[in-house]
Amino acid sequence: MELAMIESCVPLNDNDLQELGDSSNSKEIDTPQVGMHFPSEEEARDFYKKYAQGLGFGISKMYSKKGDDGQQKYISYGCSKNGKSVYKGKSSFYPRPCSKTDCKARINIKVQDDGLFLINSIHLEHNHPLSPRKSRHFRCNKVLDSQTKRKLELNDQAGITLSKSFQSFVAEAGGYENLSYDERKCRNYVVEARRLRLGHGDAKALNNYFCRMQSRNSDFFYTIDVDEDCRIRNIFWADARCRASYEYFSDVITFDTTYLTNSYDMPFAPFVGVNHHGESVLLGCGLISSEDSETFIWLFKSWLTCMRGRTLIIAYVFGI
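-> structure tokens emitted (320 positions)
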């Protein structure tokens, strides 16, 4: 690959040029071009991700738009340093650095009528230095495959420390640079796996309880969200009294995940309303594995299904 293919508004120093030279000698980097098309969004993203990894920057999804039919129409992937720097520190004595530089590098994709994902415009210039040797440290490039996940769980259950497990992966791969993840990524996964791993008989007891409650009253509602390994991730349930109360006291609902956590460190998420006496009434409950957007979308969709699609206004209580 010629260095002319690398467009950057920041001058590269000798070390950057050496890194790019080493990267170009090891493998060719295909540069995005207007008119390129891909059969799926995943392949388009993987192409841009590979290009970014070769040059030395991370990527993120910047924009997405759907048409009236609910199908994807426009997508934009760009440098992970896009956006302006925003101060996030809680104290001026301990500021949290922000890596955003308002970088404009991106590819814009249009979904054609035939289902192909077409690159219709690009911007390759960056306003920050690039470093191919540090590519594996970017969040978008840290990926754990299913085989590694399985080994981590088996080693954890066998009492093997995480550091020893990770060192075995390093030795097997032939060095840190050949891994698509780091020790922190492995540690986070093990912590999450422990949280989702119910004790002996707990999952069966939970399912038996829900089935027994539903057999007593057909208006008892519950739904369980599981991960790809069929482990319980999120739970929502509401009895007949909760569903009946919602019909009358659904003006404003509070949703608070700061109230309580159980022995598995799963936040308890109650839906609470106010009756005509000014008293709190329980309108549903959830146990969730994390407080991210995907989990909340699942929980609120489950809520709407339980309440027969009737919408509501929720006041979400944040912990401070």
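The CA atoms of residues 234 and 288 lie 4 Å apart.
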